[in-house]
Each structure stands twice: as structure tokens, then as C-alpha cells.
Specification:
The protein has about 450 residues and is of the alpha+beta class. Helix content is about 30%, strand content about 30%. The strands form 7 sheets. Strands 1, 2, 7, 8, 9, 10 and 23 form a 7-stranded mixed beta sheet that branches. Strands 12-19-16-13-14-15 form a 6-stranded antiparallel beta sheet.
Amino acid sequence: MKSDIIIIGGGASGLMAAYGAAKTLADRDVCAQVTVLEKMPRPGRKIMITGKGRCNFTNLKDWNEFSAHIRAGSNFVKSSFYNLTSAKMIDFLESYGLETVVERGDRAFPASHHASDVVDTLVNACLSLGVKIMTETSVCDVAVAADGSYVLAAEGPDGPEKWLCRRLIVATGGLSYPGTGSTGDGYAFAEKCGHSVKTLFPSLTAMVPQGYKVDDVISSAKCHIDRSTPLSELGKSLCGIQLKNVTAALLVDGNEVDSEFGDLDFTDGGIEGPIGFQLSRRCVKTLINGGRAELVLDLKPGVTLTELTTRVKELWSEIDRDPRSRRAKEKERCRILLGKLMPWELIPGFMTMHPEIITLERRSRTETKVWVNLVTIAKALKEWHFRIAGYVGYERCVVTAGGVATDELIGKTMESRLHPGLYFCGELLDVDSDTGGYNLQTAFCTGLLAGQSAGKGL
């Protein structure tokens, strides 16, 4: 089977590549076929789960701010971003009938908050230009023919298939969420064609504190702890709690290397949420390289330790004077105090990890005095330490860091420097960003540029 341009992968970058190629051909009045080969039963499976199913598809920050959220490959992405800015991406979707809204943090969503509407819009845009989308067609091998064309071996719905094309775009995605079809095939195709693949590792993932799981199953120095590993009692006491307006600092081998302010979640995986994700990339890389990683939470970033200590003592005095708590034992009064300083559901986990806030003084064989250490409580609120034992892997990470080396590609076209007519785009590249619409926008803009370049090359 033949097609002038073939895109391997029908995800965010693949669908935009198909649209870009077909639109370019139509504008040039060139009659040529564009085909997407997608292994899953329907395209856009990973888009369907982004933003918890709401699909935060881009972020409206200008390039200077946007690029600050790209953790690797920002210079490489620049040309494709200006070719398809975030505003242009919104205009494109709206031109095909999708209503959009912009929410806090310049994040854009479909107005319906249904990710399926984004997928349907992308698919309809491609179909309107004559793109063929072949689902349940898994490419097994890629080879470069003597004449510079590309030969693909695939497994289709009816058995083995052979595809030939003049231009090939590899948009298979990374390794994250393999259930959506992202199983790393594109890295093998890239290496088969002589390209280098930078070290791969999970990013925007859960960090697993020591003692959070029943058994911190660490695989060979990579510290991958599967998300399905059962929670310990500590993990159960923290799971489901969301903290707002806190600061988290990442310590590597005892030195602070990064910090973020915002919201943080404790989940069945570990520490996640916006600021947890932002810090996870460097944390994972540290653990993979054999370093020691620690997360330090400041539950009261708006005040100094001195100010907080004074406030804790004032609250304790109020509890002392309150007739409702006068008969309560010291441990119960300590819980009342903590309830004035943090969400009530956080108290059990906080007390478990900070036994030093209560001191038992044995005065005689029959008498024990309980002391609540107010200064220690204040310090623990400002510096809650979590030694990180590992991380959740590709099974639930948002994006794959590492990938096809960008110095082997032309940033203004996405074309291979090694093989003319071969293009790479999307998560497959050694480009990854923070959460907040940045990764999808990068996938869309690199995909569109790859498609347009392929279309111009025919």
C-alpha cells in the first residue's frame, strides 16, 4: 500500500501533522495522499485523559513566559511555537466549531470541559482535507529504501501490511500511559534510522515518600515504585488530602535546588499536584543518578518561623483559657491546636511523622507528664521533611523526558539531518515541559510544522 505522506501515530502531534500536511498540499493545489497509521481502535486516546478528562490543550502565555516552562529543548521549539502560537491554536480549534475557555494560569480548555470534543475537532479537521486515518494498524518496522523513500512493516486488522511513502513523520508519543498506545515504538524507529535517543525517564509524576507504601519496592537503583503498591498506614492517613498555597522545596544531597509555591496533593501514588509535578522531574533524575532527594513542605509560607511560633503560643493560651478544652488531656489539646493550624484530616499523618511534638516525662512509677512542644510544632509546620524513596513510573506519569536528540533535527522544519523526508515531532522529541498546557501545545506546534514541511517537500 502506498501513500505520499505517512504519519505514524494518531495522537496530538500526529493529528496536527496530518492536518498541516494536507492543508499545505491543498493550498498548493497538489494532489497527494496523507495517511495516519494508528495502532489503537481510535485516535487521540492520550488526549482523552489530559487535564483529568477536561483537556488543558494549551497555555496563552507569550513565548518568553511559555519557554520558561519548557524544561528541555526550548530553543528547538521556538520556530514551531511562532508558527503555531497558543492563540493560533485556539483560533484553529474555534474555526472548526470548538468553543474554548481560558481559566486561571492562562490555561485553555474546551468550553464543554470534555477532552473528546478536542479529539473530535482534530479528527474532523483532518478528514475534511481527505486525510486517511487507519486505526488498529501497528507499525512494526521502518526502513529507508535505496531511492530515499520509506518502507513500513505493519500489522493491520486483517494481518501483515507493507506501506511505502515518500515522506514519513514519526509521531508515536513517548512511554507515558502505555495503555493509550504510547509504548516507545518511535524511539526504536529513530535508532533504526541512525538517530540518537537521549536518556528517557518519567516526568510530571508522583514522588513516593519513604514509608508511604507498605513495601517500598525499589527496582535496581532506578527507584521505580509501581503505583499499584499498597499504601502503608501513613500513606492511607495522607492519601486524598489537598493542600493549597504551600511551598515545597526539593533538596538534592542536602542542598536546596528548587522550590515551588502553590497547591499539592497526596494521592495513592504519592506526592503530586501542580507543585509536586513541577519538582518531580529533577527529583526523578536525582534518584536515577543515585542521589538523595528530599521534599520539604512549608505549610505557612506567608509568615516567618518567629511569627508562627508566637502565633502557636497565642493559640495555646486561648485553648488553655477555653472552658471547653480545660478538662481535655494534653494530647487532645494538641490536636485542637493543630486543627487551628492545618486541615483536620492532615493531623494524623502530621503527628505520625512528628512524634517529637509531644514529650513524655516519667516523674515516678505511677506519674507521667505529657508536654506539648509548641516551638517544635511551629518548626515542623515550616519544615515538614519527606525523604523520597522513589517515583511512579511510565504507568501514570504525564510525560516522558528525554527522547530523539534535537540537534540531529532541523528546528525550522522538524526534518531529520540524516535522512531527507523523515520528520519527528511531539513527545517523542527530547523536549518536555511543566504541567499547565505546555506539553500539548508543544506537541501541536511541532506536529503542525512537521506536516507543513512534509507537504512543501512534495
